[in-house]
Amino acid sequence: QVQLVESGGGLVQPGGSLRLSCAASGRSFSSYAMGWFRQAPGKEREFVAAINWTGISTLYADSVKGRFTISKDNAKNTVYLQMNSLNPDDTAIYYCAQAMRIAGSNTRFAREYNVWGQGTQVTVSS
């Protein structure tokens, strides 16, 4: 059974940085694309970033492009989300997810992911 465990969330001031980690156990991590999504209070879950199974191709939401970087370390079974220049609009619970198809491309659609972590809270406030 696959498990995803996020970490690295917390409280940060506007303009600050955080790095989220998502450690995977279970099925072969290196064979699957990974994604990050977030959900703010009262809002629907939204796509943040995705990376393909090799770790070469990435995809970002327009709202985070240029500020966030997704990366994948297949040797450590971990995907990261480096978040810079954070602002209060980035406040949300952040979830990592694993795509359902082997050797699939990155995708922004939540329906293409079938394993989800429990989430980690990110709060951007002064």
Q: Which oligomeric state applies? A: single chain
Major sheet characteristics: 7 strands, mixed
How many angstroms does the end-to-end distance come to? Answer: 40 Å
Radius of gyration: 13 Å
Low-confidence parts, pLDDT < 50 over ≥5 residues? none
β-strand amount: over 45%
Number of helices: 0
On the 0 to 100 scale, the average pLDDT is 95
Structural class: mainly beta
Considering DSSP H and I runs of 4 or more, what fraction of the residues is helical? under 10%
- Element order, helices and strands? EEEEEEEEEEE
The tally of beta strands, per DSSP, is: 11
The coarse overall form would be globular
Short description:
By secondary structure, the chain is mainly β. 0% of the residues lie in helices and 52% in strands. Strands 2, 4, 5, 6, 9, 10 and 11 form a seven-stranded mixed sheet that branches. Strands 1-3-8-7 form a four-stranded antiparallel sheet, with no helix packed on it.
Features:
11 strands, mainly beta, 52% strand
Describe the structure.
By secondary structure, the chain is mainly β. 0% of the residues lie in helices and 52% in strands.
Explain the layout of strands and helices:
Blueprint: E1 3-7, E2 10-12, E3 18-25, E4 32-39, E5 46-51, E6 58-60, E7 68-73, E8 78-83, E9 92-102, E10 113-116, E11 120-124
Parallel strand pairs: 2-11
Antiparallel strand pairs: 1-3, 3-8, 4-5, 4-9, 5-6, 7-8, 9-10, 9-11
